[in-house]
Queue: 2 jobs
Job 1
Amino acid sequence: MPDTEQNAKKKLKKSKKDKLTLLLTPSIAFFIIGLDFWIKTYLRLNYSFQSFPLIDKLVYITVVFNSGTAFGLLQRETTLLIYFTLILISVFWFIYKKEQEKKLTFLIATGLIFGGAFSNLIDRLMLGAVVDYIDLRFWPVFNLSDSCITIGAILLIIDSLRKRS
């Protein structure tokens, strides 16, 4: 009887872990999409093409509409960028599904990347451009989604390097 009880506890623990695995990535992604959409909508409706300090001489809010990619590349190539984003999301989804060991770092990283990618895709589909608003004055203006994609990619690289060592 104790053996059966132990097996039941193990199954319950595995079931909870499977639920976490299933829910963590989409939860992070939806949170990023919602938060970034709210920030972009508020700034777009109230501060389009304006700039003001958030942290004086360090971080500014500068609302711009980027019809290209990072660093202003591929300006006004919205259709191409939409298809390119859809292809990248599809490839990344394949990698996500194929990954055997979905550890916490991987789940967080993929949630950040999916959330950021979908958030910017929504902008392109709705507005024909991505709303950027974080201005460090020494770097091109970017947004929360861009930051999430970058942080997610760095986490994946770290995770990959850990697996190799």
Job 2
Amino acid sequence: MDIFKAVRRLFFLFQELTIIYVCNKLPSMKYNYSVTDKMKNFEKICREQGVPLTVQRRAVLETLAGRFDHPTADQIFEDVTQRLPDLSRTTVYRVLETLVLLGVIHKAQHLGSAARYDPNTERHHHLTCLNCHKVVDMEDEILDQIRIPKTSSKEFEITDYSVHFKGYCADCASNKKKLKTSQK
């Protein structure tokens, strides 16, 4: 795909997102797996890589795989300690990093915000609320077809990409409108 077509498509996609936003409907990702499937895949990867399958790793992944809100490490810690009260925050951070290295989860880091974790490892894109920091998955075939630029002259190898849009979720947009109305 030609870069100019990609940029033009992104412009039109932004307009589409604005329309979607105004209609109060954000596109969401369809998860094609169950927690059980995710755990079976994790067990297989651990066996293949020779990585011990610990209770802590299992609990952290089960917790994350059951969520669709891209939680932070602290949010995962809060959930996991309900099952394993003696688990330390440091252990949760280490387990999350191990899961990222194994390719079982993705770490989504956007400038200026805390790292969030995503059990969906397929290419997809994100919408992030500037107010509440909610992250929503987004699928778009056109964005998935953007050609990765050649970077050999810059001594950098691109392995994947995702597009990150910023804006306001339906709840925050509604609250902003109510606040403006009440201030008049």
